[in-house]
Design brief:
The structure is a homotetramer. By secondary structure, the first copy, chain A, is an alpha/beta fold. Chain A has nine helices and eleven strands.
Chain lengths: ~280, ~280, ~280, ~280
């Protein structure tokens, strides 16, 4: 699709033909599986994270998402439970045999987050934080690189190239919506970038329709659309009491909406002869 | 999803709860059917349009798209066959029992296009051409209103409101990509707007992934994604010789890609317990 | 500044080296003069337009702006006085020896607007209304082509090329803000395009900071900035009672703000050894 | 201009009425002076930085800009001389009695950059790097906060609020262009935000037309425009051999262009009864 010489190399299909598959202890990302990552926007307290985690484990969800360090636009907003949040999330995930994905916001926090997480997430505001990318290139755990809110595909792949060129090839990309003039949705979820990424790169691509739209009512259809666009997985926010959530409650699914999502994604994956990762046998850690 | 009072009325679900269904002689748009509109970007000559039309009719495609009057960025580009193009398209469609959708660019052309088309299309550059919208509010044929390339959902619905408030309620909306900073794709196809539109309005929503992405390689996945996002139909460009096309060849499907599209869309529609319109019995005009 | 072959020709400096100067009966646009066009967003009634016109004539303003046919996002908003508005504006301008600029929204209205206006304006929503551009290429009066709200410089110059290639070389361009993610201002006034336009094209460039920002408080500084960016003129909205205006009152200057604008623009123009057109002798029509 | 309650406080004019003035050893920023910051995009070697610095000192420029740690889109691009670059810049500035502004990219680098710089700059990619903002809120040197390339004014002011609320009130803002659909210029310089910022905030506002446009030919007019829009200063890139520059040569001024800039900015500042900071007496450090 692109003729001109690409400025990236290690992330490209020309460099490596076959899909990158990222192996976790209890599941794998990429290569045909559809991963479903779910959890609250932010870890708020023990009760909340254990309640959500127990609920998710009944659906056999393999990967728990949750924010411990939260980048917030205002210094006066809830900034996360920090290390306490990491510990709570780790404990909840361990109890229910799940993997943990959570954001690392700064080079100084890499060691701490590494200790508790199975996947380290780079947030949209840090996609071009090159010191952080270099630090993550030196670890042996997977990294999920969210797209910068105004980053082109090329800039995004070059940010991934920072991690791969430093020595860490366990990288997945996450489309989470871009900033445009339209504000009927919080961001504009750019699903067209998904098949394009899959053709030029071997890295797994995850889609986050919660951040991407900001509206829980459209998370289910957009998750299904993401899978048929070619995504290797979907990350969604779910909360036991969305209307009480300390951050981003409007985009968090109710439990029954999440159950509906699972049912519909199973049907959707079949169109491409794929399966959701939660359809595979449960493996306790 | 929206709390503040809406500036539009007739197009809203609050005004009319049930889906608008637009009846054509050989099919219907909206209300559960998935419509597939296909044809070349521009009508180029008799051989081209009849060849394409014959091919499409074998797949039982009900609605032929094609440009006779083409809005082109440069005055030096091919501007379409104009009235001759309309006649050719009408003849080809009649031979194969299809309906015709084509663009009307100006108030002065409404009568002429009305004579040959079954659906009159308002192009992205004319979405806020209010004189044209008013002229189309006075006719008794359906109108497809493409989204302006930088129009918000609210502006789009207000443009539709011009047509309904003038007396024509046979209006469908067509998402065709918005203009953003990203140029890996020609436009950014905003699928997130589809479920939102369906919740606030009763009008059918069509998605055009050919214009929306500009890349034929991703038209198939994006068409499938559009259907699961909730679209009532998909409009695609197809050409017997895309590499020779007089306009937009890069985004036109080859015939075998189109066949693949039909197969995959049938499977996709089943996820929502819907059918493609071309799965219903063939009715010759 | 640009190396690749340009897709436009007649509008380029390569085609014509010297600045295009557009001669009106009472002033000239381009070629060193700084034109100041002013008036209400919309003509509302006789008293309003005569009051404003009388005020402007005291400052020796040469060109009266005002909308008679108004393109409005909602069909339920005030749509302008139409032909009555054209007549009122013409009468007011004639009484005070001014030229008239007003928008033409449709091919069907070209003859009517031609009769009353000295400059015909193409609005932002019609920049790519090619039938209208072609109709305006056949007249012998000047045309001001506003930039489409999401049009690139190249698309804009190609739209101007439609008019020149049809035979009318009295074309000026008007930057009026583009649509971006930022909504602190109504649009984002792209002053950087002004010196770029002046280097690639010989056409006069006008800047409209009223539409461009939507905030009267910043119209004065942005007008001064526009002149030093290289604009050949500024178009502003002024109203005798902005808070009562039927459209866009928030961006209309009060009379005393307009007087301040004139004082400051005179000083500003001197930096470039230029003069405002209203500093030249008053010529009654 | 804004009616709703603002989410920021310490940065607002409502909190502090009078302009913030940031005192350096050899000049002051804000409060009526027009600051001119100049230097190369990146420090490349001793000869380059001393040559440029000597040239600038002849014009009595007070603040030297230059990158030692360079955030680059590709991991394979020149990343700056790092600490060696800081030392070179400090030595050159000291020899010629200038202050130094340079970027700090990471919390781990705050101490090092603090040692050599007089003003610490936060780059566009780090505007929402909240750990970095918090670290900078604890130092006693001024911080220049560049606008994120897709940040709204509100997000920008909230990022500044992070620094002020942590204890450092020596903050200035720098508009450097936003990302839009237009790519005739590298970014879209949003001058309209300048008078708006000055009305809602007491912080000094600097404009960077080099980054903002990416085209040296339009840096001079855009600098003049910035001053009349209300900016407290301008930051430009200048290089002894732009065509040989290791980064961003296309936007760096030649020496004679810089001299022209100084002449024209002096005239421009007079329009507002202001002076360039380089017009004041030379003070050797």
């Amino acid at each position: 699709m692109e003729k001109k010489r690409k400025p990236y190399q290690l992330v490209s299909r020309e460099w490596k033909k076959e899909d990158t598959i990222i192996q976790l202890k209890n599941t794998a990302i990429g290569g045909g599986n559809i991963s479903l990552m779910a959890g609250p926007c932010a870890v708020e307290n023990e009760d909340q994270i254990f309640t959500i985690c127990e609920f998710l484990s009944k659906q056999n969800v393999k990967i728990l998402r949750g924010g411990a360090y939260k980048p917030r636009t205002s210094p006066y907003s809830f900034q996360g439970l920090k290390k306490d949040g990491l510990i709570l999330m780790r404990n909840a995930a361990d109890k229910y045999g799940m993997s943990v994905i959570t954001e690392v916001m700064d080079t100084n926090l890499v060691d701490e987050v590494y200790q508790y997480a199975d996947i380290l997430q780079v947030g949209t505001r840090n996609m071009q934080n090159y010191q952080l990318l270099r630090a993550l290139s030196k670890i042996d755990k997977p990294v999920m690189l969210k797209r910068g809110m105004s980053s082109t595909m090329e800039e995004w792949l070059l940010a991934a190239e920072y991690i791969l060129s430093g020595g860490n090839d366990k990288v997945m990309l996450c489309e989470r919506g871009i900033r445009t003039f339209e504000n009927a949705t919080r961001n504009t979820l750019d699903l067209g970038i998904v098949p394009l990424l899959k053709s030029v790169s071997h890295l797994p691509v995850i889609v986050d329709p919660s951040q991407g739209t900001g509206l829980r009512e459209i998370v289910v259809p957009m998750s299904m659309a993401a899978v048929l666009a070619g995504a290797d997985g979907v990350m969604v926010e779910v909360h036991n009491q969305p209307e009480e959530a300390l951050s981003d409650g409007d985009q968090s699914l109710y439990f029954d909406q999440f159950n509906d999502l699972v049912t519909k994604l199973k049907r959707t994956a079949k169109v491409l002869d794929k399966n959701l990762d939660l359809e595979s046998e449960k493996i306790l850690a």
